[in-house]
Each structure stands twice: as C-alpha cells, then as structure tokens.
Write a structure and sequence with these properties.
Blueprint lengths: L11 H10 L4 E3 L5 E3 L24 H6 L27 E2 L3 E6 L20 H4 L7 E8 L9 E8 L4 H4 L8 H10 L1 E11 L2 E5 L5 E3 L5 E4 L22 E6 L5 E5 L17 H5 L35 E4 L7 E4 L7 E8 L4 E8 L2 E3 L1 E9 H6 L8 E8 L4 E6 L5 H4 L5 H6 L1 H8 L4 E2 L1 E6 L5 E5 L23 E7 L7 E9 L13 E6 L5 E5 L10 E6 L4 E7 L5 E7 L6 E6 L23 E7 L8
Parallel strand pairs: 10-14
Antiparallel strand pairs: 1-2, 3-29, 4-32, 5-6, 6-7, 7-8, 7-9, 11-12, 12-13, 13-14, 15-16, 16-18, 17-21, 18-19, 19-20, 20-25, 22-23, 23-24, 24-25, 26-27, 27-28, 28-29, 30-31, 31-32
The structure holds MU-OXO-diiron and calcium ion (3 copies).
One calcium ion binds next to loops.
Length: 622
C-alpha cells in the first residue's frame, strides 16, 4: 500500500503550501514531530522525516481507483457559515446566534396517553417502563413516511446508556429488587413517535410504534454464536434485555443498531470466594461491579451463581431493532462481543454491508465487519447481512498503512487459541489480542464521510505512558484525545488501509474551537463533520458540539451543553433542516449544578433531546 503513495521527503515547498491550508490534517510521529498531510494521507517514517503522500493533479490514487471525488475540491462553497458560540460553564445550553433549539423527550416523558407522568424518584418499574428512559445517548430518526411529511413526523430511537442510581433512584444504590427493577426499566431504548407541531417545535405523540426495550425485555440472538453453549445458562432463563446502550448505527434496510458498552458494571459476585475467569477479566468483570449493585438483588447479574453462568456473555453485542414494527430486538453475534461504542454502517464493493466499530476501553481496538454477500441479495434470501461475514480488528502501522486482521478460525493465530467461531465472537477481544491488533486510546464513534474516509474518535487515554506511544496514538498520556482517519482498500471490503491523524485535540488549545475528549461523531452527506465531546474541556467549560470541514480545515463551535453533562447522539430529518442531539447526565443529576430542562425550584436535571434548527431554515451545520 505504501508504494501506491510515492513519497518525496525533499519537496519542502509543497509541504509549506499544504501546511497553510491544512493545518488540521496531521500525522504525528512517535517522536512528537507534527507533519501536515496532503490529499488524504501523510505517510510518516519512524525517523521523523516528513514524507508527503503524492497528490499529483489533486487526485490521489485511492480516489482514482474508486472514482470517488472529494466533494469540495476546486471552487469552494462554504460548508460552514454560522456565527460560532463561545465556551461556557453555565446551567443552560447555548447555541450559535444563527440557530435555535428546543427540548424534546426528557427522561420520564410518557410514551402513551395513559402512561404515568414523570415523578421523582420514579414510583415503580412499571411506570418507568412506560416512560422515556435516562442517559440519552446515540439515536436515529426514522421518517414515518417517504416524502415531505417524513421530515415532520417520525420515530426516534434513543439509547439510554446509563442512569447512575443516585440519579434514577434518588439514592446512591438500590436497596431492594423493586429498586433494581426501576433502574433496569430506565435502561435500554426508547422508540418514540414524534411530530413537528409548529415550525421548530416537536412533541412526543402517542403512537402504535412507541415502545420501550429495557434490561428485562425479551430479545433474541442470531448469527454464528446464537446457538452456542456460551450463551446458555443452567437456569434456562431466556435472553432478556439490553444495557449500557451507548452509541448507535442504522442500516439502509431501515433498522436501528444499538451498541452495548460497559455491561460489566451491572454484574458482581455475592460469594466472596468468586474469582473471574481470564475471559471475564478481559471484559472487566469483578466482584463489585460499579454504580448499580443489580447483582445484589437480581441473581441474573450475580457472577457467583452457577445457574446464571454465561449470563454475562449475553451482553456486549450490537443489537438490531426495527422501528417500524414491534419485532423482537436481535443481538447480531457476527459483529463480535466487545464494549461496543457505536457502529458506522456503509455499503462497500459488491453491495456488501460494512460496519466499523470502536471498543471503548483504554488500549482496546477498532473493528470492522464485512458481510459475506450483497446486502440486498442476502435480504431477499431472508438472511440478515449482519449474520454472515467476516470480523476484523485493526492494526495501525507506524508508516501510515494499516491492516485488517481476520478474527476467524481461518486465521492460524486465532485457530491456535479458539475451538470454534462462536468462541471467537463471544471473546472477540481475546481473538484481537491473539492477532496483534493495535491498542488504541479508547475508540468511540466511527463515521464514514461521503468521500469514503472513515473517522474515529479516540477520546483520551490517561494511562498511555511515553514508552507506549505509537504513530496512531502519539501522546502519552493522551489527556485530550484525537481523531484518527483512514481510507480502506477495495471500497471498504479489503484488508488494508491508509491512515492519518485528522486532529489532535491538544492542537486546538488557544483557538476559538478549543475542545477535548471527542466522542460523538457524524459526517453529513456534504462532508461536514460534527464532533461532540464527553470529558474535560478547556477552562472547565461545558461539553460541546463543533462542526468541522476537513477539506478546508475549518472548525466552529455550534453548541455548548450544561454543567456536567455530555453532548452526545446526533441525527437529522431526511432534509437535514432539523437535527436532534442529546444532553446526557446534565449536572450529573445534581440540581445545584443545573435544573435543565425544567428550570423550576425542586426540579432535578433530566437527560433530554435537543432539537436544533437554523433560524433561516437552512441545512443544519451550514
Ligand atoms: Fe458510552 Fe464510550 O461512551
Ligand atoms: Ca456517556
Ligand atoms: Ca460515548
Ligand atoms: Ca465518552
């Protein structure tokens, strides 16, 4: 691959030209030398010499091969043209003066006409299960119909990542099974019907499709591990629920994908003699879990109860949900079991479905799944494109090339350690260890830009030491994170790629778009990149959302959240005149920090969706 991008280390003048325009496109070497890249990629040498990817006649080879033209070469039409907003650390969200926002679907909103109104703390698990959950995170909008009405009426699938018990229950930890059930009912997914009642004003309306999937809703498994003993318990309890639904994806066949991230925290062991297996250790299970204590009252989450052995293997999957029907949610085992942050699904060569996924833990990996065939043909045969295919883990070489390492029994490095594909998928992290994938700085969201570039946020990694840095994770410690970018071979279906670092957060320090801990990420069809943050911001400011134009290097801040919230989740109506984002854990549940979104005495802060609209009705982001 490297040979396809001839390098010319002596071409310093071009290097300077490029540097002018593309300060954001950087590859940083292990030695800390920053290089600007031309076109898509900067190749880099371990010696620290600057080597620039060939950009003859403004076209690099991968573009020539695939026929993809970058959208914004030549005459520039301004992609981002709004007044940026300053950082803030107050109790209310702020937005660019060219925009306006409203609030939709806060935690506790009744789904149906007869569902109970929000009360704090929730009165019962049954009441909570009829209301919008807590911990709003990834989401996607599905228009109710084709055509214009679909821009004003649709279904919103919202992930409820977590609800620390102090927030859900009004106390630190549950003290009874009923309280555990309330916490469980606040988790999962909300599928709500929403409608624009007046321009810019959306409401949750009672609808046939409106439903909750909680930690106790029946689900089913499919794909190569579905029938494995590893997913069966002695107790014979059927698979129930989804938890820690972080980011998301969606498919061209009209379904929602929700990703199970930190599922280990809900489990613990009541027996003090319990010891984790190596597999459990690799997924972070321990005797106490964190934040929830479900295992103390619900045996299903007790790792020391032999009847429920393997229950923990039922979490950590990508789950497919049909928002247009009430069909059972399906855990797609072919995509592997990791702490799934999100999934960016695109259609690659031969119509194959390709899914890019991050496993959000320090020193964990980036994954890719490629379906075995054309997704339309598979669907016509009654097969899910997400049930049959190949899973890979990414290896980033220091020279700007990369490889997708196959996680299957066909790979000798895997076959040596595993007995069958179900095991490989259930313990995908260990399979990726075996093949030598590159440990990354907490891979969060991935997104595929219209020119084929794939971006992934690496939110931060305080534990990476200076000795552990590599070209793809060049900072140790990495306190503020970075965004990495690659272009796959064979239109997303190959086993090699070229990569560079798009943006180091530390490079934004002192600019008017300074930020840290990138997390949510979405490339819109025009090539704008929306970046959302979750973590430390400059001067202790609130989390934020920025809009970037990778082609011009421009980045502007559109929105800032409230104190101690995270800005996450992003979707739009098909016309992109309305955008939905989420504020998660505003004030970390503390009314002294903020009472968003109610702002009345005695209110607790509530996670909620923010509806964003350009005042002139234009494309959101422009
Ligand atoms: Fe749920 Fe990694 O954020
Ligand atoms: Ca979160
Ligand atoms: Ca996240
Ligand atoms: Ca995060």
């Amino acid at each position: 691959m490297h040979d396809e991008n001839p390098v010319n280390p002596s071409d310093n003048r071009r290097f300077e030209d490029v540097l002018q325009n593309r300060l954001q496109r950087r590859t940083v070497l292990a030695g800390g030398v920053a290089l600007a890249a031309t076109s898509f990629l900067a190749a880099s040498t371990p010696a620290g010499a600057s080597v620039i990817a060939s950009n003859k006649k403004g076209k690099n080879k991968s573009e020539e091969k695939t026929g993809r033209e970058p959208k914004h070469k030549g005459k520039k039409q301004k992609l981002i043209d709004f007044e940026p907003v300053d950082l803030d650390s107050g109790p209310v969200p702020l937005i660019s003066s060219d925009y306006e926002f409203s609030v939709l679907a806060p935690w506790g909103t009744p789904l149906k006409r007869r569902a109970p109104e929000f009360s704090y703390p929730p009165t019962s698990a049954d009441a909570q299960a009829k209301q919008v959950g807590i911990g709003h995170d990834g989401m996607w909008y599905f228009p109710s119909t084709r055509g214009r009405r679909g821009n004003r009426h649709g279904y919103l699938c919202i992930n409820h990542e977590f609800g620390r018990n102090s927030h859900v229950l009004g106390k630190d930890l549950p003290e009874s099974l009923e309280e555990v059930r309330i916490s469980q009912a606040a988790h999962g997914i909300s599928i709500i019907e929403i409608s624009e009642v007046e321009p810019g004003s959306w409401e949750v309306i009672p609808g046939r499709q409106s439903r909750r999937i909680t930690a106790n809703t029946p689900v089913r498994f499919s794909g190569p591990a579905a029938k494995s003993e590893l997913l069966k318990t002695k107790a014979g309890n059927r698979p129930l629920g989804t938890v820690n639904n972080c980011a998301n994806g969606y498919t061209p066949w009209g379904t929602y994908l929700t990703c199970e991230e930190n599922f280990n925290g809900y489990f613990g062991a009541s027996d003090e003699n319990w010891e984790p297996t190596p597999e459990q250790e690799r997924y972070g299970f321990n005797a106490t879990g964190f934040d929830y204590d479900w295992f103390k009252f619900d045996e299903r989450f007790d790792l020391s109860k032999s009847e429920y052995a393997n229950e923990e293997n039922r979490f950590g999957w990508v789950v497919e949900i049909d928002p247009y029907s009430r069909r059972r949610a399906v855990k797609r085992t072919a995509l592997g079991r990791v702490k799934h942050e999100g999934v960016a699904l695109t259609i690659g060569q031969g119509g194959r479905a390709v899914a890019y996924m991050g496993d959000d833990q320090r020193f964990d990996y980036i994954y890719k799944f490629v379906s075995s065939g054309n997704y339309r043909k598979m669907l016509r045969k009654g097969k899910s494109p997400l049930d049959e295919g190949t899973l890979y883990a990414a290896k980033f070489n220091d020279d700007g090339t990369g490889e997708w390492l196959e996680l299957s029994m066909e790979n000798p490095a895997v076959a040596e350690k595993f007995d069958n594909q179900a095991e490989v998928l259930t313990y995908a992290r260990l399979a990726a260890d075996a093949v030598g994938a590159t440990p990354m700085d907490r891979p969060e969201w991935t997104t595929v830009a219209p020119n084929g570039d794939v971006y992934c946020t690496l939110t931060n990694n305080s534990r990476r030491t200076p000795e552990q840095v590599d070209a793809a994770n060049p900072q140790g410690p990495n306190n503020d994170g970075h965004i990495i970018r690659w272009r796959d071979s064979a239109q997303h279906t190959g086993t090699s790629f070229e990569w560079d670092i798009y943006l180091l957060s530390s490079d934004t320090a002192g600019t008017d778009y300074a930020y840290g801990s990138p997390d949510g990420l979405w490339a819109d069809p025009d090539g704008r990149l929306f970046i959302q943050t979750d973590g430390d911001q400059p001067d202790g400011a609130n989390d934020q959302m920025l809009v970037a134009d990778p082609a011009s290097g421009e980045v502007r801040r559109m929105f800032t959240g409230v104190k101690d919230c995270e800005v996450t989740g992003i979707t739009t109506t098909p016309d992109r005149r309305t955008m939905f984002i989420n504020l998660q854990h505003p004030g970390n549940g503390d009314p002294d920090a903020t009472t968003f979104p109610d702002y009345v005495d005695g209110a607790v802060p509530r996670d909620a969706t923010i509806v964003i609209r350009r005042k002139d009705g234009g494309i959101v982001g422009s």
